[in-house]
Each structure stands twice: as structure tokens, then as C-alpha cells.
Amino acid sequence: MASFSKMITRTDTEKRLSVPIKFLESLPPFHGGNAVDFQAKDENAEVWTFQCSTRKKGRYKKPVLSKGWLAFASRKKLKVGDRIVFYEARNQTTDESPPCYGVRVEREIKLLGCRIGYAPLLSEIKPF
């Protein structure tokens, strides 16, 4: 999978996440359509279902994550300046298994108003 990271913008928190076109190569086949669903596990092993869609017409496909994205962004309390990382996770079963993806949120760290790096977002662990 072509993993990617992206700094979160206002549009990403309010509407959809635009993703690099290279990301399409690693997703399940679109089978002639303009959208495909895939799942990714977060740092708490929670599985999220996202839909990646592209424009139906035009020269540029402009892929975006729509379905499932806003719920994820809301639950993770994403803010402008955070970073999202999608990556290929190792699938422990067989070669015939569907691709396995991971997703991680990193929170911007600032010191005296300057960004000095990112740290993994530690989500609340749900009680049993």
C-alpha cells in the first residue's frame, strides 16, 4: 500500500478528506465504478469503514474519503494541524485475505507557538 500522511485542513474536518492519487493503487479494485469501501484499524484496534470515491468525469480523479470519514474525524476530535496517517498493516492470515490497512492520528505539538513535531493521539480506552 502506498501509505501517506497529511496535515488536516478545515475542509478535512468539516466535509471530506482529500487523498493523494497514488493511494488509489493500493485500494481494492473499483470494478469500473467511482467508489470503493475499505476498512482500517486505528491504534485501539477499532475498525473503521471508509469509502474512497473519485470524480465520475474530468481529467483528474481527485480521490476523497467521504463515507465514514466525518464520524472518524468527530470521534477523534481532529483539529486543523493534526496529521492523519494511512498505512498497510500486516495481515496475519493468508494471501487471499483482503488487504489490511491501519490509520493513525498524530496531534501537533507546539512550543512557544511553533510546531516542533507530532505525537500519536492517545484515545480514551473504553471500560469493559
Radius of gyration: 15 Å
**Number of helical elements:** 2
Helix content: under 10%
Report the mean per-residue pLDDT as an integer.
83
Segments where pLDDT lies below 50 for 5+ residues? none
Outline the fold blueprint.
Elements lengths: L3 E4 L2 H5 L2 E2 L16 E7 L5 E7 L10 E2 L3 H7 L7 E6 L12 E11 L2 E7 L8
Parallel strand pairs: 3-7
Antiparallel strand pairs: 1-6, 2-5, 3-4, 4-5, 6-7, 7-8
Main location: nucleus
Protein name: TF-B3 domain-containing protein
Keywords: DNA-binding, Nucleus, Transcription, Transcription regulation
Give an account of the 3D structure.
- This protein has 128 residues and is mainly β.
- Helix content is 9%, strand content 36%.
- It contains two helices and eight strands.
- Strands 1, 2, 3, 4, 5, 6, 7 and 8 form an eight-stranded mixed β-sheet that branches.
- A hairpin with a 5-residue loop joins strand 3 and strand 4.
- The longest helix has 7 residues.
- The N and C termini lie far apart (34 Å).
- 16% of the residues are buried.
- GO terms for molecular function: DNA binding.
- Its main location: nucleus.
- Pfam families: B3.
- InterPro entries: B3_DNA-bd, DNA-bd_pseudobarrel_sf.
- It is found in: Nucleus.
